[in-house]
Design brief:
Helix content is 37%, strand content 12%. The chain is of the alpha+beta class.
Amino acid sequence: MSGLELSVDDLLTTTRAVRRRLDLGRPVARELIEECLELATQAPTGRNRQRWDFVIVTDPARRAALADLYRLGLVSPRQRVARTGVDRTAHDTARRLRMADSAQHLFDHLHEVPVLVVPCVRVEDRQETATPVGQANTWGSILPAVWQFMLAARSRGLGTAWTTPHLHYEREAAALLGIPYETTVQAALVPLAHTIGTDFRRGPRVGTAQIAHWDSW
């Protein structure tokens, strides 16, 4: 049962990426995680294949090792990550600095977050993600479920954030967690903890007039 009295619109507009306000000293009950998973698996899934799996990491040693892979992915990435292209926040220097500070906090404290969640999607082989169509099919089979997990977490006073740097070292993470690398693709690393306070607000976004294209671009 939801722990916060949020309307649907409030839930959808205040589920933020939480980094600085994760409560590092408060454990998360297994029952809460299982409730979030139950709701996650009600997400739409292509051809009802239900290819998702979630690795829930609570063991301190494994959390620390996974956090090290996350940090390594940031300081020594194996693939080039594009930093160019559209950026509708480029003018907001103050907000970008706050975001950088928040990201640094997570970098420094990820190993202390009580739960790390690694959502995965099963594939026949890794060539399934070699084309745009294959990528769309694969990610479409896991992303809705992860987002429902994050919404469920928010409604229970828990915070999450979608992170991907550890994927530079996905094979090492697979070995650490016993994930069958060749047939299971990791999608993200999601820290999960109670939040310090629950008063999250809408994020600043561009108006829909700037992003809606009616009938043609």
